[in-house]
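Protein Record: Sequence and Backbone Structure Tokens
======================================================

Structure line: whole-number tokens from a learned vocabulary of local backbone shapes, matched to residues.

Purpose: to set a sequence beside its fold so the mapping can be learned.

___
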Amino acid sequence: MAYAIKFKESVRKDLKKLGKAEIARIFEKIFEELSVDPTRYPELKNKFKGLRRLRVGDYRVIYVIVNEEVIVLRIGHRRDIYDR
């Protein structure tokens, strides 16, 4: 089953902080892996319960699965992403 990938509007702001090469690498991983099996990546705990994360080098993609859609909520460096 293929999952549809959607992005929350706040992701656009997150991407402005990244370089073109990093954005390309992150998007490649999102569309290759999350569209196929987003459940294979770990669920977060505590205040982020119900969300999942995809690791792309030092960057993290925070997403949620709703029915047959993957909604990307945030993209950011690992040192900053959990502070928000």
In short: The first helix runs from residue 10 to 15. The beta strands are 4-7, 52-56, 59-66, 69-77.
